[in-house]
Amino acid sequence: MALMTEANWEPKVLAFCCNWCSYSGADLVGLNRMKYPENVRIVRVPCSARVNPQFIIRAFQRGADGVLVAGCHPGDCHYSTGNYYTRRRFLVMKRLLEFIGIESQRFQARWISGAEAVKFRDTVTKLCEDIKALGPQRKLRDQK
Amino acid sequence: MNAIQIKMREVAGQLLSLGEVDRVIGWEKGRFAHQSPPAFITDETKVERLIWDEYCLTGTAKYLLDDPYRAGKTGLFARGCDARAINRLIQDGQVKRENIVIIGICCTGMSDSVSRQMAAKCCDCTHPTPVVYDLMIGEPVKPVAKPERFKAVAELEQKAAQEKSEYWTRQFAKCIRCYACRNICPACNCRECFADQYRVGWLGKQHHTAENQVFGLTRAYHIADRCIECGECARVCPVGIPLMELNRKLIKDIQQLFGDYHAGVDSETAPPLGRYSLDDMEEFM
C-alpha cells in the first residue's frame, strides 16, 4: 500500500451506523452488488443514541475528515425513542461544530432504514465527494 | 456598613445560635481590598467576618459539593446566580433541598477586581433576584430578558469557517488546562470528570491546542442545556478564554430549536437534551 501524501490524499469518513437500520442498509448495498466509496469506515453501534457527541469531536481530532451518524427513521427506533434523543443532540452538535469553524458538510446525520440501500449509497457518496472538494480536515487535529 | 451586610450577620447569627444550621457560607474580606473570597462560618461568635461589598463575585453553591457526605444543614447566602446553581445541584441529584437554608440576597451586580467596572457576568445577568430562597434580604426585582448577551455569539456566527476556526484555535492555544472552569462550574458536578479519566481515553493528558479544544468543547456540550449562565467559568479562567461564548451559543441554539428554557430557574423542568418531542425540527431526512 502506497503511503498517503498530499497528492494522493483520500478522505477518511467515519460512519456510525445503528445496528437495526443503517447497518442493515449498508449491508444491503453489498447484497445488491452496488458500490459505495471505500473511504467510509463503518462503526456499528446498538442505537444512534449510543453515539456520544464527544465521539464526533474525538473523530475529527484523531484524523477523520468527515463523520456520518446514521440511525432509524423517527418512529422506527428499535428501542422506541433512542433516535428522538439523537435528533435533539445532533441538531445542537451540528451548530456547535459550525460555530468552531468545522465546515457543515463534514458532519452529517441521516435517517437510513434497513431497506434504504440506495439512500445509504447516495448519502456516503455525496459525503465523500463534498469532503474531497473541501480537502483534508486539519482544524481539530493533533499536531504531529 | 451597608444594610445587607448588617442583615446578613444578624440572620447568620440567629441561624447558628438556634441550631437551624451548623455552618453558613458567605463572603469575607480577604487579603486584598478588591477581592472577597468565600467564608465558611460554624461559630455564631464569628459572624462578624461576613461582609457584603462590590467584590463578592464567587459563587457559593458549588462549595456544597466539597463534602458531599456532610451531616448537618448549611445556611447558604445566595444571589440570583447562586440560587440557580442550587436548583442545578438539586436537579442533578447532588444536594438535597432540605439540607440547605437559602438566604437570598437581591444582588445589584458586582465589580470586576481588575477593571473596577461592573463585572461581565453581572452585566449579562438575567435573574439578579434569587429564584429559590427561604429567607430574603433586600428588595426583589423582576427578571430581565437580556437578548444583547447573545451579541458576541451572533457576530461570530456570521464569520467564515476559517476565521471561526482561527479564533477558537487562538483562544484554546492559551489554555493551561488548570480545569478552573470545571471546578467552579455548578453544572460540572460529575463525581468523576471525563477529564480525569485519562485511561478511558476520553481526553489525552497531552498539553496541546487540539486536546485543549477537545476538553473545552466536550465540557461546553456536556453542560449545554444545564448551564445557568453564572459566568463563573469565564471569570476564573486565568488566561481569559471567552468560555461563555461557547455556552451562550449552545443556549441560544437550544432556545431557538426547543423553545424557551432557562436552566436552574426551577428544579422541576427537565433540561431539553434529556427529553424529546415528536415534532422536533427535522434536518436529518
Descriptive account of the structure:
- The complex is a heterodimer of chains A (144) and B (285).
- With 144 residues, chain A is of the alpha/beta class.
- Chain A has a single domain (13-134), classed as Rossmann fold, CATH 3.40.50.
- Helices cover 38% and strands 16% of the residues of chain A.
- Chain A is built from four helices and four strands.
- Chain A has helices at 22-31, 53-61, 82-99, 117-134, and strands spanning 13-18, 40-45, 66-71, 107-111.
- In chain A, helix 1 (22-31) packs across helix 4 (117-134).
- The two termini of chain A are 22 Å apart.
- The model of chain A has no long low-confidence stretch (mean pLDDT 93).
- Helix content of chain B is 32%, strand content 8%.
- Chain B has a five-stranded mixed beta sheet with strand order 2-1-3-4-5.
- Chain B is of the alpha/beta class.
- Chain B folds into two domains: 3-137, no CATH class; 147-274, no CATH class.
- Chain A binds chain B through residues 53-54, 57-58, 61, 74, 81, 84-85, 87-96, 98-103, 108-111, 139-143, and chain B through 153, 156-157, 161-169, 194, 202, 206, 208-211, 213-214, 217-218, 220-221, 224, 246, 249-250, 253-254, 257-258, 272-273, 276-278, 280-285.
